[in-house]
Design goal:
By secondary structure, this protein is mainly beta. The chain has 2 helices and 5 strands. A hairpin with a 3-residue loop joins strand 2 and strand 3 (51-58).
Length: 82
């Protein structure tokens, strides 16, 4: 599912991505990987025709510079997806 993100939007990894990679548990917050990771979008760039790449500053200070938009969800949506 594509979702439009803007800089400063809070995000988490999508449930589908975590399940497909077998990530059911992980380190506690703050972290930059696994099911408890959360962060803020810092940039959105077009990629190919159908998706975008996003840059994310994770709550633990790490940064992802080119993460596929399809791997994340808005943090405020994560409760309704469980």
């Amino acid at each position: 599912m594509n979702h439009t993100f803007q800089p400063d939007d809070r995000v988490v990894f999508s449930r589908e991505f975590l399940r497909n990679t077998g990530q059911f548990t992980g380190p506690d917050k703050p972290c930059h990987h696994g099911p408890f990771a959360s962060g803020v979008v810092t940039a959105v760039e077009p990629f190919a025709v159908t998706t975008h790449l996003v840059a994310i500053k994770w709550d633990d200070g790490h940064e992802s510079r080119a993460l596929n938009l399809n791997l994340i969800h808005a943090a405020d949506r994560c409760r309704e997806l469980v």
